[in-house]
Amino acid sequence: MAYAGGEARRGPVTMGQANMIRCMLRDEPEHINIHDVWPVPEGTRTESAIEALRALAVRHEALRTTFPHTAGNAPREQVVAAEGTFTVTVLDHEDLPDDAAGYADSLARAARAERFRLDRDFPLRVSLVARSGAPVFAAMAASHAVTDVGALAVLKDEWLGLLAGETLPPPASLTPLDLAAEEASPAGLRKSDASLRYWERIIRTGPQAVFAEPGAEGTEVRTPRLTLRSRRAARALALVAERTGGMPSTVLLTAWCALVAHRADQHACVAAVPTSNRYHPRLARSVNTLSQDALLSLDVRVPSFDALLKKAWGAALNAYRHSQFDAVALWEMIGRTTHERGSRFARDVVFNDVSTLPATVTSAPAPGSGSGSGSGEHAAVPEAGAPTGPGLELSWGPDQVLPTRVLTFVHASGPLLHLSTWLDPALFKRDEAEAFLTGLVRLLEAAAVDDVPLAALTEVTGVRPVERGPRWRRVDGSWTSPPLVAQALSEALEGLPVHVTADDAGVTDGSTPQDGALTAYIAAGDAPLTPAQAHTALMDALPGRPGVLAPRRYVIVHNPPAEADRTRAWLRQQILREGTGRDRDVT
Q1: DSSP for 453-481, written as a single string
Q2: What does the alpha-carbon distance between residue 304 and residue 311 come to, in Å, rounded to a whole number?
Q3: Cα-Cα end-to-end distance for the chain
Q4: What sign results for the dihedral spanned by CA atoms 93, 97, 100, 102?
Q5: Which long-range contacts does 466-470 make (Cβ < 8 Å, 24+ apart)?
Q6: Where does 61-213 have alpha helices with state H?
Q7: Which residues, at least 6 apart from 566, have a Cβ–Cβ distance to it below 8 Å?
Q8: What is the pLDDT of residue 328?
Q9: What pLDDT does residue 508 have?
């Protein structure tokens, strides 16, 4: 299908585009491409559905954008065409399966498996699923280089508007090229630098992984989807918002963070919140990829839910304001910071509230208007006399390979709370995963009536903190296991004997170390091993091992003591070299 009528332009890529292109060039396409299924209004002709797609291509520069580049190099420029072509596949069936929507979704998922050619491909792969000539669904895969979930929501809304005969107002949000120019301005560069400083503070001081515990391993996990649909939860959510004066989105984020931190036994919930960067009116309806993480760090060491809710809005807004950054510079900073700290940053918790994206179609809040998700949601208590949907329904869906431990998508907050979550099955058995979501509903219902002491979360929700066992210690704000560290370091050094101990700094009750530092003792024999070599070898072995934290000090001796499991025996050995391993200095 041909389109024509747009303006030809070219310029640098945006920070969000550069971020997603980096992922597209690195990751498997089915992991990074996105998809959606749009219902076709009854009575729509195939030609009308295609014509509406053609109008969207002319209307939005992102759909006419390609990224020229040479092999082996990431694109640094985007080119907007004035005209071009796209393909729509029409799949006409005499009849459709009972679950026609599920069939359309399977087509869209399958279309994700083919990599988009950044230098030439139209960014949407569209299949019209028809029954006896009448289109029923539009199933599509989309390039993440120019679209994200928010962009697809805007496109869907406008496509349905065009099919209904509406005249769309001129686009009001920034185009990708306009956003790139703003990001390259002095103010934009200062904003990016501030974001890097914000991220560095969290990565330098927060837990290296929220789910650092027995069973957590690997960088990619095949995880089944668990979906919650609950009228009870939606009503409770609205009542908490009414009681506290908080926005429903912030209330839900607070409850989710409280339960995650409680289950993981962490002082803080550190989570990526991707859709939050649409909080600004100029970006709310943007057809562009704005998928740069807002990194939320919410300290849960407060007495009650209401106190945590008061902190959550400010913490979320702070995260949103620091979600624009140079992705290359960010990961360089993360690499430098984690090498110095002796950890690997794990993006293992993601909370993506897309329930408010349709609201941005009609209104978007000014910055600081009080919406914790920055998405224009307004509190509304469902009427008791008009219940719809199940009180509480849990259903399991297909597996997906994910680089996270816990991923949650909120699809709607009323009149049903509808969310899907993927919980690492090594950490959550099926009954535990179901109990986690049921616990979230129970927390909302308790908070709807009165403030909830966070010390009572186990009693209120039925969700218990993880039991790590006596060999786990909290070190430098992170949970780690000295025996696991010793095993990982020994393996990294090709089997050299290693003993790791944690000092007792931070003991608060005479028995349980709450914080401290690790020291590694290595019997190197005749090998000319240095602390820097030991540290580098361990750092290379850290990905996929969230329970392993590098020692603060490496002590190298010649031979292991006879009692190799006793720290005092290692202390009696003659020290050949020692140091932090973070620099070239050794003693």
Answers
A1: BGGGHHHHH-PPPP---TT-EEETTEEE-
A2: 11
A3: 71
A4: negative
A5: 466/213, 466/263, 466/264, 466/265, 466/427, 468/213, 468/214, 468/265, 469/214
A6: 100-111, 149-163, 176-184, 186-205
A7: none
A8: 85
A9: 40
Helices (H) and strands (E) in the chain, counts: 18, 22
Instruction: Give the burial string for 17-55 (b: 16+ CB within 10 Å, else e).
Output: bbbbbeebbeeebbbbbbbbbbebeeebebebbbebbbb
Q: Which residue has the tokens 């919406």?
A: 371
Greatest alpha-carbon pair distance for the chain in Å reads 85
CA distances to 13, 251, 273 from 207, rounded to whole Å, are: 33, 23, 17
Place of tokens 């009693």: 459
CA–CA separation, 127 vs 86, rounded Å?
12
Alpha helices in 206-278 (DSSP H): 231-244, 248-264
Residue 467 to residue 264: CA distance in whole angstroms:
9
pTM of the predicted protein model: 0.84
Q: Let me know if 107 is exposed, middle or buried by CB neighbors in 10 A (0-12, 13-18, 19+).
A: buried
Looking at residue 304, the DSSP 8-state letter turns out to be: B
Residues of the chain with pLDDT under 50: 358-387, 506-514, 585-587
Query: 269 with 261: CB under 8 angstroms?
Result: yes
State the Cα–Cα distance between residues 344 and 335, nearest whole angstrom.
Answer: 8
Q: How does DSSP classify residue 527?
A: S
Select from 295, 108, 102, 265 the least CA-distant residue to 204.
295
Is residue 410 within 8 A of residue 354, CB to CB? The reply is yes
